[in-house]
Amino acid sequence: MRLLKSISTVIISVALFSCAKQESTPKKNGTQQKENTEQLGGFPWDIPQSMPDRPLSKAMERLYTDYKTPRPEDNELFTSFAYTQLKGFDYNGGDGTISRRDPSKVIIEKGKYYVWYTKRHTKYPPVGYGNAHLSTDEIPSADWDLGEIWYATSEDGFTWEEQGVAVSRPAKPIVGWRSVATPDILKFKGKYYLYYQGFMEASGKKGDHCPVTVSYADSPDGPWKSLNKIVVENGAPGTWDQFSIHDPYPLVYKGKIYLYYKAAFGDRPDYLCVNGLAIADSPLGPFKKHPLNPVLNSGHETAYFPFEEGIATIAIRNGNEANTIQYAPDGVNFSIASVTALLPIAAGPCVPDAFDSNGNGRGITWGLSHFDNAADNWSKDHTILARFDCDLSLDVKDLKLKQTQTKFKKEVFFSKSLSKNQIERIHTNNAKILSSK
Ligand code: AAL
Asked: Contact 167/224 with Cβ under 8 angstroms?
């Protein structure tokens, strides 16, 4: 039915388009375009749903060539986000000794939702990435230093029950001895695989350097056996991913394992984060990096999900294309599908079709994300998990989540205040400008 509708829409549009084409003069130069516009009158009051045959500004042309629909409210790949605090996790009064962060995608197993994440439970709060030289075997540098991988289950996605450790730190010098962090889950041919960052020095000492390793199990409840070897190697010296392979994110796409990951140019996330893709036929590798890497030019902890024939992604932070939802019909060549706000940090969406997508992805509606420095006090640095909801699904139409006019309270804006140095700079400039007039 849907297919018939689309075919007839295409036939009608092609017919209308060719009629209109015959009547109108070809768009050749500015004068002709101006004449055309004068003949046609102003742009229609009600937004045409397909590209009108008239001279268009670049921006209006892009509305039809680059987006699924001219109005974001009708665009299956546009969403706003809603957030809910989770029940069931204890953080030791927020004193910085317990942290949960970087949740995996959520999967459905045994009638429950499952999620894996970095848990840090240390005697002391972190001294900070910039103070890594002060870290010890008991004192973490960054929030994700001295981490383990834990998991939790839920029956509704709001209240979670922590089940215990999935992967602990192995003995030195095995990959991950310093910290195992930022996991994500793959189910392949009935078995389970956790991919995660394996640190071999405290984060911040040289940078946030690590490769990716993997553990596997017959059940989502474990027991997990570690490969104890690197599974996605850092790049060759001098290349973009030479020091870090972060945020591994596996999906099964058209029978192959597509593992997306991030690295930071210049070793600094604030500088620019880009994402690459490594493909394998089997979960323990070999993983072959895509020749076009990096495949995404922005995005820090980036979530991916099967959508229609390709793969869509939520690209948050760090880059020209931060705060966008993007889509690649082949899982490789991504374009911006929509621009949005208040994106979930380190999103781990619930992706029911993560492991059986054959070009028929249905999208996502919720997941877990995190808020770092949850105490708003770096001496108690820790991260908490939260729930986000969205409508990036072909099966749901939540008009409230399709609203583009997301209103934030004034406190959100005022929390981004000027520093002392900025205020001084403004006063000095004021003095110069006002005295010169
Ligand atoms: C996160 C992720 C990776 C980094 C660190 C922990 O935001 O990008 O996991 O290594 O921060």
From this structure: yes
| pLDDT of the chain, 437 residues: tens digit per residue | 444 444 444 443 433 333 333 333 444 456 666 667 778 899 999 999 999 999 999 999 999 999 999 999 999 999 999 999 999 999 999 999 999 999 999 999 999 999 999 999 999 999 999 999 999 999 999 999 999 999 999 999 999 999 999 999 999 999 999 999 999 999 999 999 999 999 999 999 999 999 999 999 999 999 999 999 999 999 999 999 999 999 999 999 999 999 999 998 777 767 788 999 999 999 999 999 999 999 999 999 999 999 999 999 999 989 999 999 999 999 999 999 999 999 999 999 999 999 987 889 999 999 999 999 999 999 999 999 999 999 999 999 999 999 988 888 999 999 999 999 999 999 999 999 999 88
Q: Name the residue with the closest Cα to ligand 1, atom 7.
A: 301
Backbone angles phi, psi at 61, to 5 degrees: -65, -45
Report how far apart, in Å, the C-alpha atoms of 319 and of each of 234, 246, 274, 433 are.
22, 16, 8, 33
Model pTM score: 0.90
Question: Encoding tokens for residue 96?
Answer: 């910085």
* Ligand 1 pocket, residue 338 CB under 6 Å: no
Cα–Cα distance, 219 to 222 (Å, whole number): 5
Distance in angstroms (rounded) separating the CA atoms of residues 241 and 252 = 23
Residue 370 Cβ < 6 Å to ligand 1: no
What number of other Cβ atoms are within 10 A of residue 111's Cβ? 7
Tokens describing residue 387 = 């729930």
| Of 109, 127, 105, 128, the residue nearest 117 (C-alpha) | 105
Query: Residue 244 Cα, ligand 1 centroid: separation in angstroms?
Result: 10
Pocket test for ligand 1, best of 209, 246, 268, 318 (most atoms within 8 A of CB): 246
Give the Cβ contact number of residue 128 at 10 Å. 17
What phi-psi label fits residue 110: left (phi over 0), alpha (psi between -120 and 50 degrees) or beta?
left
DSSP for residue 341: S
Confirm or reject: Cβ of 208 under 6 Å from ligand 1: yes
Rounded distance between C-alpha atoms, residue 87 and residue 81, angstroms: 19
> Which residue owns the Cα nearest ligand 1 atom 8?
301
* DSSP 8-state symbol, 350: B
How far, in Å, CA of 277 to CA of 289, rounded?
Answer: 6
* CB 53 near ligand 1, within 6 Å: no
CA of 368 to the centre of ligand 1 (A): 15
Site of tokens 């705060």: 323
